[in-house]
């Protein structure tokens, strides 16, 4: 039986694995999504998709930590 392709409009898959004292976090996206991301990243001044992803991860972590901090500050 052959595999049936799944039609995803924006397929993003991420993986992580330990490497020495850190981790390798990687992602795979389809070519259509990548082309769209390049255009958006360039439009907003990012030099590459990698710099956009780095900034997005840092902002998301910052926002989550601020939310947690705010929750605990409110309980004081």
What report would you give on this structure?
Helix content is 53%, strand content 21%. The chain is of the alpha+beta class and 76 residues long. The protein has one domain. Strands 1-2 form a two-stranded antiparallel sheet. It is extended. It starts with 11 loop residues before the first strand and ends with a helix.
List the helices and strands and how they pair.
Layout: E1 12-19, E2 22-29, H1 31-43, H2 49-75
Antiparallel strand pairs: 1-2
Structural class comes to alpha+beta
Mean pLDDT: 85
- Helix proportion of residues, in percent? 40-55%
Largest sheet: 2 strands, antiparallel
- N-to-C SSE string, H for helix and E for strand: EEHH
- Overall geometry comes to extended
Gyration radius, rounded: 18 Å
Return residue spans where pLDDT drops below 50 for at least 5 consecutive residues.
none
The quaternary state of the protein chains shown equals: single chain
Termini, distance in Å? Answer: 61 Å
Would you summarize the structure shown here?
With 76 residues, this protein is of the alpha+beta class.
